[in-house]
Amino acid sequence: MNSMIGIKGLYMNKIKKAIVLFSGGLDSTTCLAWALKKGYECFALSVNYGQRHARENESAAKIADLLRVKLISIELKLPWLKSATSLVGGGKVPTYSRFRRKIPSTYVPGRNLIFVSMGVSFADAIGAGAVILGPNAVDYSGYPDCRPPFYKSLEKSVNLGTKKGALGGKIKLLTPIINFSKSEIIKLAFKLGAPLKYTWSCYKGGKAPCGKCDSCVLRARGFKEAGFRDPALE
């Protein structure tokens, strides 16, 4: 009996827990599918920070349910975002431009830093060893918080300022698609069997994607280059 309990305990200790920052979009859904394939026990974290639409949060709930992953939804009120980003209320969502040099108005100040901080808090509270998220520095809008050096630096800080880190453990910040093109992300998603049909990427919301914002154009181009039809449009 005691030996059986010991074996069970050893097995349970080997189960890897991870927090997946989850928007219900193409990238984060691919990351969630990747984490499940890697054997992580996943806890998805979805944040409503006042976006101009709820479609992505609805997608997150649908996909988490399909994949049988526990979803924690948080409502975050940051009143200063209303005038700082067009994704909350600061003006019109711009159309895609490949020649844009400035950071677009769809950038949300400090969003990824805030989200990672919440994910790390969750991880430290339940003993998880990783926070997994889907920033991309190849086919993206030029957001400063999507670049690899940011996450390398942030991981060091995370392990200096958490209980797990102080006790000799480590919380990893895993960004599996950060150096992938959009077409490579899509190919990986299909390989993993990710439910892309239920993902939502458009910045504007509505019944159907606008097809003109950065997220829509990059997604459409990625599917074309990957040689797949977008199941969300069928």
How are the secondary structure elements laid out?
Layout (H helix, E strand, L loop, with lengths): L1 H13 L1 E6 L4 H12 L2 E9 L6 H12 L3 E6 L35 H16 L3 E3 L15 H13 L2 H4 L5 E3 L7 H11 L21 H13 L8
Parallel strand pairs: 1-2, 1-4, 2-3, 4-5
Helix pairs in contact: 2-7, 7-8
Task: Provide a concise account of the structure shown.
Helices cover 40% and strands 12% of the residues. By secondary structure, the chain is of the alpha/beta class. It has a five-stranded parallel β-sheet with strand order 3-2-1-4-5, with helices on both faces.
Q: What does this protein structure show overall?
A:
- The chain has one domain: Rossmann fold (3-Layer(aba) Sandwich), CATH 3.40.50.
- With 234 residues, it is of the alpha/beta class.
- The chain has a five-stranded parallel beta sheet, with helices on both faces.
- Helix 2 crosses helix 7 and helix 7 packs across helix 8.
- Strand 2, helix 3 and strand 3 form a beta-alpha-beta unit.
- The protein is 40% helix and 12% strand.
> Number of DSSP strands?
5
CATH topology: Rossmann fold
The strand order across the widest sheet is: 3-2-1-4-5
Total number of helices:
8
* Helicity, as a percent range: 40-55%
